[in-house]
Amino acid sequence: KQEVTQIPAALSVPEGENLVLNCSFTDSAIYNLQWFRQDPGKGLTSLLLIQSSQREQTSGRLNASLDKSSGRSTLYIAASQPGDSATYLCAVASTGANSKLTFGKGITLSVRP
Amino acid sequence: EPEVTQTPSHQVTQMGQEVILRCVPISNHLYFYWYRQILGQKVEFLVSFYNNEISEKSEIFDDQFSVERPDGSNFTLKIRSTKLEDSAMYFCASKRADLNYGYTFGSGTRLTVV
Fold first, then answer.
1. How many Å from the N-terminal Cα to the C-terminal Cα in chain A?
2. Contact: A104, B41; criterion CB under 8 Å
3. Which of A27, B35, B50, B60 is 20–30 Å from A83 (CA)?
4. What is the pLDDT tens value at each position of chain B, 114 positions in all?
5. Partner A contacted by B108 (CB < 8 A)
6. Cβ contact (<8 Å) for B42 and A103?
């Protein structure tokens, strides 16, 4: 059974800092991995999708990497801003590209002005 | 940008009552999902739906739950007799068949069972 872990549960950084959010998964046989952002009491906004054959994806100040063999993904946020404050969720699709997602519990990021 | 729309945004119901949560997936998507998130916990998979039938369901999705796509645009989740522990945020998601596209989630329905 796939398990997804995100540590630490919370992170507080000063504005402008570059930061890395970690995600690990127990079964390396994944089809894809997706990073989401969740604001308090709101829905999930997709940030980046990485296919199992890819090593990284970039969108603006965000860069996500994937190392299937070690069961790890990282989300790199450059030049963090207070508006980046949110919970960041990692989710993997294990049994097919259109299969269910298994989520981590998320990392709650606070960027201090 | 196309969105997955969920209604209502918040529903309060008495224990034992039936509720129907509604979702309008993105029109050219073929795969549909329901997830839930109990406060402070992980987002959990409930059920996936493709080609007018359930393709996978979790152990949470017992006989009290059902899904339907009644008219080609709406996708509903029904809970027949709600329990206190059904209180959660329920998310609908949809997906294209194209492998290069990920899941699009709705903004959720917060269900409170009292």
1. 41
2. no
3. B35
4. 789 999 999 999 999 999 999 999 998 899 999 999 999 899 999 999 998 999 999 999 999 999 999 887 899 999 999 999 999 999 999 999 887 788 999 999 999 999
5. yes
6. yes
